[in-house]
Amino acid sequence: MRKLTFAVILCSLPAIAGARDWNTRTGDQPLTASELHDQLVGNTLIFFDNGRSVYAASGEYSYTYGEGGTWLGHYELKEDGVACTTFVTGSIRCDLIVQNGTRLTLITEDGLRFPIRDVIPIK
Q: Could you tell me the residue ranges of all domains in the chain?
């Protein structure tokens, strides 16, 4: 019986590990793959704390805090509004981008929400 229980738990681990609580709210609509591309690639997302996420057409990514300091990496766009970034440190973070009315919001895997103030083309 123990072996069977362990086998069931082991088989369910990928499903559990893949599940994400994105902390979505009523009205949040994940962007389609096309919308995600249009909103991110070649653009800078500006947050209300003046932080800036830059998604270069080359796949390079940078995030600069409002007070300074920058993280560098490369991003990959996934289906259902998810963008994953591999930072130069080797850490990986995936974010869900949702539209709610006229507002875009970035939601981290651990449920933190960051409303986007503006989207501007990279100069």
A: 21-121
Write out the DSSP string of 3-15.
Answer: HHHHHHHHHHHHH
Burial of 86 (0-12, 13-18, 19+ CB in 10 A): middle
User: 4-31: per-residue pLDDT in tens?
Assistant: 333 333 333 333 334 467 989 999 999 9
- Give the global pTM: 0.81
CATH 2.40.128 fits 21-121, yes or no: yes
* Rounded distance between C-alpha atoms, residue 73 and residue 33, angstroms: 21
What H or E segment, with its residue span, contains residue 38?
A: helix 33-40
